[in-house]
């Protein structure tokens, strides 16, 4: 498992020519924060990312633990995963929303994306998406890139922008990390490769972070994974089907708080990541839009699930708007540093969450 993690994180050598050209072009734009070689320490600090990407976290939430496949009826997850790629590239400071003279009057969803660094991320899918965006002669908005990367276009000339087999490639990446395993499963007339959960700790930690953000007690996450992992008898399963959670302190309107996971394996030092809370909000937005948010809450009563989904939608409303809705009780200053270098990350995250909120109109 350790070797798998190491292999996935070893990046290719820097393309210093492309990065130098990009930085020089940025320096000529008024008001643009420049990331040159004298500030490389800042970039290294923000590149200390979790072992799991947003795409992998969202996929894990939708994956059936023992069966090893996603719901056949989920037609929105693929589109959401492309949005996760853009958010992940923003967290790694590879792309941003374009600055121009009309920034104050132009809605953030209508402003195009630009590449600010071509340095490889060490994640194959992210690097592929970065090359596609960099290679385009036309600058496009977040919604346009999500359409093109997912193949949501009738223009044959733009079919080359599509990233193919994203779900399968993400699953194989999780196999390399020792989290999933590969099995063959027969579905009547054909065989299909499935990827059951091998190491449940990864999904446990993802669900814990989801529950923290939704103001649900961590103890409620235990039945979700415990029944299938321990191999409980059919009789004991009924203990988990009526798990009722009260409104609790804060309820739907409680402010976000970052509570580190106890003895984490995949999120060590999460509290030191400056975008830790914003990452959790991004995961909630992706899970909600991708129709996988309720999967870890299946053992709870309907009222509790409705409150959790309502909180998720409220979070998307607060952080899917630029600037963030500071007057909302859900807003916390811990998520918004106000520093120029961080604002460009927050802008793009807000733009993607805005698109995820409008998915019913896009798909």
Description:
The protein has one domain (54-220, 252-361): yeast vps74-n-term truncation variant domain like (yeast vps74-n-term truncation variant fold). The chain has a two-stranded antiparallel sheet. Strands 3-4 form a two-stranded antiparallel ribbon. The chain has helices spanning 2-9, 16-27, 40-46, 54-62, 77-91, 124-135, 142-150, 166-176, 200-213, 221-230, 234-237, 276-289, 302-319, 340-357, 359-362, and strands spanning 95-97, 113-115, 183-187, 190-194. Strand 3 and strand 4 (190-194) form a beta hairpin. The chain is built from 15 helices and 4 strands. Helix 5 (77-91) packs antiparallel against helix 14 (340-357) and helix 12 (276-289) packs parallel to helix 14 (340-357). The radius of gyration is 20 Å and the shape is globular. It is found in: Golgi apparatus membrane.
Q: Rg from C-alpha positions?
A: 20 Å
Structural class: mainly alpha
CATH top level assignment? Mainly Alpha
Distance between the termini: 38 Å
Could you give a short account of the major beta sheet?
2 strands, antiparallel
Identify the overall geometry.
Answer: globular
Number of helices: 15
CATH architecture: Orthogonal Bundle
CATH-wise, what's the superfamily? yeast vps74-n-term truncation variant domain like
Q: What pattern of helices and strands is seen along the backbone?
A: HHHHHEEHHHEEHHHHHHH
Question: Major sheet: order of its strands?
Answer: 1-2
Look up the CATH topology.
Answer: yeast vps74-n-term truncation variant fold
Q: Low-confidence stretches at least 5 residues in length (pLDDT < 50)?
A: 1-47, 226-250
- Give the count of structural domains: 1
Integer average pLDDT: 80
Share of helix, binned: 40-55%
Give the beta-strand count.
4
β-sheet strand percentage? under 5%
């Amino acid at each position: 498992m350790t070797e798998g993690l190491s292999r996935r994180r070893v990046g290719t050598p820097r393309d210093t020519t492309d990065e130098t050209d990009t930085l020089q072009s940025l320096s000529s734009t008024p008001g643009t924060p420049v990331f040159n070689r004298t500030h490389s320490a800042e970039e290294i600090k923000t590149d200390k990312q979790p072992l799991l990407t947003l795409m992998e976290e969202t996929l894990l939430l939708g994956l059936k633990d023992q069966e090893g496949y996603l719901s056949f009826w989920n037609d929105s997850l693929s589109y959401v995963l492309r949005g996760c790629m853009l958010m992940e590239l923003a967290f790694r400071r590879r792309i941003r929303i374009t600055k121009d003279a009309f920034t104050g009057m132009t809605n953030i969803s209508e402003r195009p994306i630009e590449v600010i660094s071509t340095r490889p991320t060490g994640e194959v899918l992210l690097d592929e998406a970065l090359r596609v965006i960099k290679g385009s002669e036309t600058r496009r908005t977040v919604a346009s890139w999500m359409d093109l990367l997912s193949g949501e276009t009738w223009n044959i000339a733009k079919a080359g922008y599509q990233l193919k087999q994203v779900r399968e490639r993400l699953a194989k990446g999780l196999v390399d990390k020792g989290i999933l395993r590969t099995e063959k499963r027969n579905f009547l007339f054909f065989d299909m490769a499935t990827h059951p959960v091998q190491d449940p700790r990864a999904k446990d930690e993802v669900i814990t972070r989801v529950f923290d953000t939704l103001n649900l007690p961590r103890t409620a996450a235990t039945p979700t994974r415990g029944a299938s992992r321990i191999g409980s008898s059919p009789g004991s399963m009924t203990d988990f089907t009526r798990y009722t959670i009260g409104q609790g302190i804060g309820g739907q309107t409680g402010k976000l708080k970052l509570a580190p996971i106890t003895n984490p394996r995949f999120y060590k030092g999460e509290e030191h990541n400056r975008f830790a809370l914003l990452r959790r909000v991004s995961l909630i937005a992706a899970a909600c839009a991708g129709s996988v948010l309720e999967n870890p809450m299946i053992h709870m009563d309907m009222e509790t699930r409705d409150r959790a989904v309502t909180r998720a939608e409220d979070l998307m409303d607060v952080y899917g708007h630029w600037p963030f809705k500071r007057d909302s009780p859900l807003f916390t200053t811990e998520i918004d540093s106000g520093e120029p270098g961080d604002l460009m990350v927050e802008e793009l995250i807000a733009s993607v969450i805005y698109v995820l909120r409008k998915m019913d109109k896009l798909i």
